[in-house]
Design goal:
heterotrimer; A alpha/beta; B mainly beta; C alpha/beta; A: alpha/beta; nine-stranded mixed beta sheet; three-stranded mixed beta sheet; B: mainly beta; OB fold (Dihydrolipoamide Acetyltransferase, E2P); three-stranded antiparallel beta sheet; 8 strands; globular
């Protein structure tokens, strides 16, 4: 997909709730061997939202940070898209809660997006379209989730809470989005039907035909469009449902795993679904240098991948410290027991 | 209870509850949060305008609630405090975060949180809480 | 010259859980007792004021002044007075003002609350209506929570101790053992207060007044008319009433109830007395900290020294200023709308020398102090025996 070649990220911000539960704690409930699970998933602990947090509150906190780095007035924002698979309402947008909490005013378009774990990057593409066409000056795209795995399901070790927000604009970009490409198909690898509390998934089918095929496809399209080669990228972020998948994806594409290191957030926060690859992008930007080229590819079950070629500008240096970094949220943590986790995430029913 | 289910009652306060928009009297300079309908010092001689507070302050006093009112039962124990905002006004709210830091004088900053839900099918009431820093 | 106003009769129901009696039975029982005590008959009554906080939410009944007048077969002016937990005290003040003005000669004041027809959680939510719902109740704070905020600050500023708070409850329970209408007529210890379940730290269950059914009534009468009915006149020497912001966070200080200070000043000035002249006082101890704030704000002891004053036994029956001889809200019980009227009744009994085992010797001047919410209303009355 062609962009205007100028638009990009004006501000970015993340939010990770402070509670953490360790793989050991969850494994002890189900009699599983934590070392085997940690080795299998490359996840040590995951972030858990407090009982007073949800996708809207996470989105607001991340967006506040993005606005701090964007250095714009909230009412300059012309569009808000919140991507999540855990919107607090089924009908009633999260996006307007964010708009009100930020003081965006009333002159903005908004919608909630759902595309499993890639709804946040879909929002970035939508903002990019509106911005590069000149329809709006700034758009706000957010990916946030309070993901839930059914008790005892393998997902329980990884399904986590967190989010990231991006102000997209034409002026004062700290990272230019050179190009974006998407690869989509009807592939039911993971889903949740109405009124169901927990998602279901097709186990190993989520790998080859879903995650790897779609990210691989999107990256290929991106390279074709930009005439870049994979080795041109300095940093790489893929969606992180666990630690294994992105590393294997990198290997398949011939990417050195060191390039994933800065954005490899999964081992300490888990899979934050719509927030996952975007949290990885935030962590990468936190350490990025001007002129560096970042490859971002999300994945959403069902299925699709949005790939982005992002070039960091000189402005990164002065904007980076205007809001808390991912690392700051990473280090702000309180460990909880499974019992507390069950209470906080509403798993205790009357 | 009916007033807790009221949408308009909550909606007309979103600006203050979500964003800490108080007001300031142009006559005497006093800053108010929650916003006042009239300046209690100047009354008809006063003129109130909106005032954005920064959302930082310190704990003036606090309590840990163990016996909660309806709608808050599942949250016990939780900390309620009166926060002295840096701009002057005091405001009541919940303190969250690392409660081992809890003390009179401890610094806090505003964070956006869920306050309570009107049951499983009513609206979700959001607002600001105070995170220990 | 100003008209002089007296209390000529008092009536009280037992305070507690009245499963078999409803709102109207309680109100009528107290009213009849007061009328009989005064030696008047129904036709002598010119008007009625009823203190009631929340008939609407406790029993789903509004319009309760007419309800009671109607049940009594009286077609007189009847007015409900509401100021949360100060409803009773404020009803007394309305009656006082009505007689003082010369409009009425004999006024019946009732205070009544039927709280146990709803579950505890609902009762707590109803009581929370006395706080600022939009900025306090919204955040899930309870009444114990609001007083706990004051307690914590008082402890911080003045070094008031957990034990001193507990001693208020211990003393009031001790007094309640001598009061036949008390809800909790049994002694407790400092240890039992401190080890009772936490409600809102630093306050525990035994720091809190209970949920109570009950009614109280008094007959207020012009002095010149009163002499027709009785010789046992107790004069209302002073009456004060002040208000403050509903929300605790809007107050200048959290370690005092400004409304109490202002209402007390008004009452002391009208009566021409000083705090030291008071022989016995009923103060608003909805929570233990509230009694410490009250004795300071009423001027019985300097600000910040209330805890020590209690610890030294000065407020016990044998102390320099016995406080809450009835057992207070804590141990006698707290049917919110009735409390302010009950306080006056207790002071009248003390001044008439009819307080039995809990009688304060030679009590001549008594004070009643009633608070609404976390201090947004305060009503203070000074009563005096001239014989």
């Amino acid at each position: 997909m062609k962009t205007d070649g100028k638009s990009g990220i004006v501000g970015y911000g993340c939010y990770v709730p402070m509670y953490r539960i360790k793989v050991e704690e969850i494994a002890s409930v189900w009699g599983e061997d934590p070392e085997r699970i940690k080795k299998g998933l490359l996840v040590e602990e995951k972030a858990v939202a407090g009982d007073d947090e949800d996708t809207a509150t996470i989105a607001v906190e991340a967006a506040k940070n993005a606005l701090k780095r964007a250095c714009i007035n909230p009412d300059d924002i012309g569009a808000i898209y919140v991507g999540s698979e855990s919107h607090p309402y089924v009908v009633k947008p999260t996006a307007t809660i964010v708009g009100e909490a930020l003081g965006v005013g009333n002159s903005y378009t908004a919608a909630d997006l759902e595309f499993a774990c890639k709804a946040g990057t879909a929002g970035i593409q939508m903002c990019l379209g509106l911005v590069s066409s000149g329809m709006i000056d700034y758009g706000l795209a957010i990916g946030a989730d309070t993901a839930q795995g059914a008790p005892g399901d393998a997902l329980e070790y990884t399904a986590a809470s967190g989010g990231a927000a991006f102000v997209i604009g034409r002026k004062n970009v700290l990272a230019k989005i050179i190009a974006t490409a998407s690869y989509s198909s009807d592939t039911p690898d993971f889903w949740r039907r109405p009124m169901q509390h927990y998602p279901r998934h097709a186990a190993r089918f989520t790998g080859e035909p879903a995650y790897f095929r779609h990210i691989g496809g999107a990256v290929k399209l991106l390279l074709e469009e930009t005439n870049l080669s994979i080795s041109d990228f300095d940093k790489v972020v893929f969606h992180m449902p666990n630690g294994k998948f992105p590393l294997r994806m990198a290997k398949m594409l011939g990417i050195e795993k060191e390039k994933l290191a800065d954005g490899f957030v999964v081992s300490k926060v888990g899979n934050t679904y719509s927030g996952s690859s975007l949290l990885g992008l935030c962590a990468t930007l936190d350490k990025a240098k001007p002129k560096e080229l970042i490859l971002l590819a999300s994945f959403g079950s069902g299925a699709g991948s949005d790939a982005f070629a992002i070039e960091v500008t000189d402005l990164i240096e002065e904007k980076r410290d205007l809001a808390p970094t991912f690392e700051r949220y990473l280090n702000r943590k309180i460990y909880i027991s499974y019992a507390k986790y069950a209470k906080m995430r509403g798993k205790l029913k009357d | 209870m009916s007033h807790r289910s009221s949408v308009p009652l909550a909606w007309r306060r979103f600006e203050a509850r979500y964003r800490l928009v108080g007001n300031r009297c142009l006559t005497c300079g006093t800053i108010y949060f929650p916003p006042k309908a009239i300046c209690p010092k100047c009354r008809r001689k006063g003129k109130l305008e909106k005032y954005q507070l920064k959302g930082e302050g310190k704990i003036h006093t606090y309590t840990i609630i163990h016996a909660a009112p309806s709608g808050f039962e599942k949250r016990v124990p939780y900390c309620i405090a009166i926060i002295e905002l840096d701009e002057g006004p005091k405001v009541l709210g919940e303190v969250v975060g690392d409660l081992t830091l809890l003390d009179i004088g401890a610094r806090v900053r505003a964070v956006f949180r869920k306050i309570y839900e009107d049951g499983e099918d009513g609206i979700i009431h959001y607002g600001l809480k105070w995170e220990l820093v | 010259m100003k008209r002089r106003v007296c209390v000529i009769g008092v009536g009280l129901t037992k305070f507690g859980e009245h499963w078999g009696k409803g709102f109207r039975e309680l109100a009528i029982e107290a009213g009849i007792k007061a009328i009989e005590d005064a030696g008047i008959s129904g036709k002598d009554i010119d008007a009625m004021y009823i203190g009631n906080m929340s008939g609407g939410r406790f029993i789903g009944q509004e319009h309760i002044a007419s309800l009671i007048a109607g049940e009594l077969g009286l077609n007189i002016p009847a007015t409900r007075v509401e100021a949360a937990c100060a409803s009773g005290g404020l009803a007394v003040r309305q009656a006082y003002l009505a007689v003082l003005s010369g409009k009425h000669d004999v006024v019946l004041v009732g205070g009544v609350e039927k709280m146990t027809d709803v579950k505890t959680g609902e009762a707590a939510l109803t009581l929370a209506g006395a706080a600022d719902q939009e900025w306090e109740g919204y955040h899930g704070v309870t009444f114990p929570g609001l007083y706990a905020l004051m307690a914590r600050r008082h402890m911080h500023e003045y070094g008031t101790t957990r034990e001193q708070l507990a001693l208020v409850a211990v003393k009031n329970h001790e007094n309640a053992t001598k009061n036949p209408i008390a809800q909790y007529p049994y002694p407790i210890t400092v240890e039992s207060v401190i080890s009772s379940p936490p409600i809102a730290e630093p306050l525990n269950l035994l720091d809190c007044s209970p949920i109570t059914d009950g009614a109280a009534a008094i007959v207020v009468c012009a002095e010149d008319v009163a002499k027709k009915f009785t010789d046992k006149l107790v004069h209302i020497a002073g009456s004060g009433h002040a208000t403050d912001t509903l929300a605790l966070h809007d107050r200048e200080s959290l370690t005092e109830i400004k409304a109490t200070k202002l209402a007390a000043k008004m009452a002391y000035e009208e009566a021409g007395i000083k705090p030291a002249d008071v022989d016995v006082a009923e103060v608003h101890d909805c929570f233990t900290i509230a009694e410490i704030l009250a004795i300071e704000d009423l001027g019985f002891v300097d600000k910040g020294k209330g805890g020590k004053f209690v610890e030294d036994g000065e407020t016990r029956l044998d102390g320099s200023i016995p406080v809450n001889t009835s057992g207070g809200l804590k141990a006698c019980g707290h049917p919110v709308g009735a409390t302010g009227v009950k306080q006056i009744a207790e002071i009248v009994l003390q001044l008439r020398g009819e307080a039995g085992e809990r009688q304060v010797k030679d009590a001549r001047i008594g004070l009643a102090h009633n608070v609404g919410g976390s201090g947004a209303t305060a009503v203070v009355h000074i009563l005096e025996r001239e014989w």
